Amino acid sequence: MSQDPVKRALLCRPTHFNVTYVINPHMRPYSVNTSEALKQWKALVATLESLSITVDIIEQQEDVPDMVFAKDQGIVKDGTVLLANFRYRQRQKERLYYSEWFRDNGFRLRDLSSTFPFEGANTLFFAGMLLVGVGFRASVGTCQELARELEVKVVPLHLVDPYFYLLDMDVLPINKDTAFYYPPALSKNSQRLLQRLVPNLYELSEGAATAFAANSFVSGKDIIIPSGMPESFREDLMNIGLTIHEVDISEFKKAGGGINCLINVLE
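Given the sequence above, the corresponding structure tokens read:
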């Protein structure tokens, strides 16, 4: 059984994308080929549009190089956006620009308290629950506030490897019964919890995980994956019944982000 296809998504044009500071182990300062990054982003937009997804675009501001990672900005649900609380000061100004865009486009804005860090890419909906990566960019307190604000069951998963610092780098939900995960990125207890929650749970190889396989993007029976994935991952996807679309996002990996990080689902 597939999940519902995505109807509408928000992306940020990478006009000023670069790596100018280091807040995760992937970041390589001033390593980005900006023209190539824009080319890759346009290919992602074209792929989304080929899947009948309406793409809204927010323009990037010069003083926020990571603004391109739209998924981080919060959780959108039923016309309301729960805005991110960025842990690192380098990213906190992004919230101002996205708040303005959401407000101007008719979305209702909600906030967590400023006490707890929260980023959209550190959360994943699965089978009516919200999975949250705890450790590097969220806390148990974050989970409690998310449960209250969204009125949903929240399941904390403890992340243990700084290389996989956000949950959407470690876990890839496919539908309400199926997901992929990379066990070494999670605590032993969280591994066991996922094994109980997910009827069909596939392990990602180290090669697939480090190539950002979990940061793929699923819409119905289609999946957009980074180019260069191991054949074993592709075979698993085809056996599940997914149609594969490949996009090169190598420039964005230099900042520690992938396909899913670039997309915030609006509908």
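The chain is about 25% helix and 25% strand. Try to locate this feature in the token string yourself.
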